[in-house]
Predict the structure.
Amino acid sequence: MAERILITGAAGFIGSNLADSLLSNGFAVMGVDNFDPFYDKKIKETNIAGALLNPDYQFREGDIRDTDFINRCFSEYKPGIVVHLAAKAGVRPSLADPRSYYDVNVMGTLNILEMMRLKKIDRMIFASSSSVYGNNKKVPFSENDNVDFPISPYAASKKAGELLCCTYNHLYNIAIFCLRFFTVYGPRQRPDLAIHKFTKAMLSEEIITMYGDGSTSRDYTHIDDIIGGIGNAIDKVKGFEIFNLGESKTISLSDLVKTLEKYTQKQAHLQHLPLQDGDVLRTFADITKARSALNYNPVIDIETGISDFVDWVRKNGYKQ
């Protein structure tokens, strides 16, 4: 019998790609998602359309803050492991609505952990974020670095989630790996994120808002590499550990725009605005620990990833 995995946030960018990968590798999956209106529900419905055709996939619409709903999901499905991806996403929006970010990202995570305790489910993968490093001056960012200085409510909520996971491992021996994702991109990427937003704007010959002078940099990580890392974490989860999942290479915002110009064959029309509160200046993952313990080996460089992503956007009907 196939092992049963419950994925929260299953209709989103990472969750839907993960479900497809797990199903293709012989796992059974229950997806849970509340179709948060942060972006169009139709996008998420398209994300899971393929999985819904698979008899080993079940989907439940509901909110991780609803304990009755979560209880029903766990009682009906009896998963062996939980991959907890559901969260209010985005740094900038968290400044405008910090209460809801804490409600979902902290209390929602607590609900999942409590249900695991009650149902005696002893393995979890938790989606954390590179944002917990804040404006860390040491690069690349290591899991051993101090992350007591987050600069947005979103980042603080993710650090709080990690702390809850550590607590439940200590008290109830639930094995948990917290994976700090570094700026994930690729097919199904959220439409508000830079690569998707910029690509769409370029193909439509619309103005791109660039915050700062273009010198900020990110460690962009392709979704296929992230999915490989999560898959290895599922196989190996034991005790409590934190891992960076990044590409361990950085590119400035200005160079990212140039790369997008190259593959869209369009010129970017830029409107420069000041950096926004909560934005970090750079991210850069030290993946030594993940390479060693998870056999994590990212292989998709930014040029290949951007080329493939632009092709995906074109095929999905954006104006050219």
